[in-house]
């Protein structure tokens, strides 16, 4: 019996060592951006730059038809997908087509549009503000609700000639929808249905261990703001404390989440200007 266990153990240990030495297989999509991933799976894509009322330039991706669909000029049902905190348009297409909502909807004959929140790695442009400056980052959920969602939806409605579209939000994307449709009745008229995945509005009712974050004093958060540690991506550096700011005041709809938004780890690593470095520059601009 013992020799059997020993042998199993030895095989296991040697196996693990060999595995560590072997280069890890890498997903070919690991270094691809949104349009490359869409093309990789054999779908067509389009990209449009929507300018928000306060000047942020937001690239909106479109998967106009299913993989095996022949070009057809008849109008299709439009669905707009708005990603959540720390994500980007890629959130909807990261899995294979059989399990990515963006591709599934395209194959189900929808005209699929994928948004990007201001300040994510795809949306680092403004008509006159430089992302290296603090002013670029001086926004909250409120501005996204007031400017970004209406600009995007108006653009899509206009472009597709549809009177109404479907809105699918994930997490922060649901918060933006609730805010935008509740405060802008004309905009709400353009929405056939608002579908909320993991809906969130406030951190007030957080419970469990996460609740403790809500009690961190704003001063502590401020110390973390603008700091960067050895140029590490924001999720691992002190700069990530910026992300916690909205949690410091559970009632505050502060948009830092969006800023951190779409700092998709993979995207962050392939970007020359990570949010962390952006913050260092921000301090210089101030
Ligand atoms: C995505 O990658 C392609 C190919 O490298 C490049 O041409 C394109 O500009 C990239 N798009 C973005 C938004 O970075
Ligand atoms: C709608 O589209 C037309 C034609 O492309 C354009 O001239 C107009 O400015 C657009 N309006 C909005 C609100 O985007």
UniProtKB/TrEMBL annotation:
Molecular functions per Gene Ontology: hydrolase activity
Keywords, sorted A to Z: Glycoprotein, Hydrolase, Lipid degradation, Lipid metabolism, Signal
Coiled-coil spans in chain: none
One of the GO BP terms on file: lipid catabolic process
All copies of domain Partial AB-hydrolase lipase, residue ranges: 34-95
InterPro entries noted in UniProt: AB_hydrolase_fold, AB_hydrolase_lipase
SUPFAM superfamilies listed in its UniProt record: alpha/beta-Hydrolases
Pfam families: Abhydro_lipase (PF04083)
Residues of the signal peptide: 1-19
Family: Belongs to the AB hydrolase superfamily. Lipase family.
The protein's name in its UniProt record: Tear acid lipase-like protein isoform X2
UniProt organism field: Cricetulus griseus (Chinese hamster)
């Amino acid at each position: 019996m013992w020799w059997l266990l020993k042998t199993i153990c030895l095989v296991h240990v040697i196996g693990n060592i060999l595995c560590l030495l072997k280069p890890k297989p890498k997903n070919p999509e690991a270094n691809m951006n949104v349009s490359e991933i869409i093309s990789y799976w054999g779908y067509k894509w389009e990209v449009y730059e929507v300018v928000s009322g306060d000047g942020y330039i937001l690239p909106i991706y479109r998967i106009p038809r299913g993989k095996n669909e022949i070009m057809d000029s008849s109008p299709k049902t439009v669905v707009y997908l708005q990603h959540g905190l720390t994500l980007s348009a890629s959130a909807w297409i990261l899995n294979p087509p059989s399990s990515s909502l963006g591709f599934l909807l395209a194959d189900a004959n929808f005209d699929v549009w994928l948004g990007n929140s201001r300040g994510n790695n795809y949306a680092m442009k403004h008509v006159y503000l430089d992302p290296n400056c603090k002013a670029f980052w001086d926004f909250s959920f409120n501005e996204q609700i007031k400017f970004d969602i209406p600009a995007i939806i108006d653009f899509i409605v206009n472009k597709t000639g549809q009177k109404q579209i479907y809105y699918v939000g994930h997490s922060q994307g649901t918060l933006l929808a609730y805010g935008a449709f509740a405060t802008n009745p004309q905009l709400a008229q353009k929405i056939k249905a608002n579908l909320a995945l993991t809906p969130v509005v406030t951190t007030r009712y957080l419970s469990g261990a996460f609740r403790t974050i809500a009690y961190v004093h704003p001063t502590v958060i401020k110390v973390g703001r603008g700091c960067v540690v050895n140029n590490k991506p924001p999720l691992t550096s002190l700069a990530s404390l910026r992300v916690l700011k909205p949690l410091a005041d559970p009632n505050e709809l502060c948009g830092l989440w969006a800023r951190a938004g779409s700092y998709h780890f993979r995207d962050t690593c392939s970007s020359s200007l990570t949010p962390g470095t952006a913050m260092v520059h921000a301090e210089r601009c101030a």
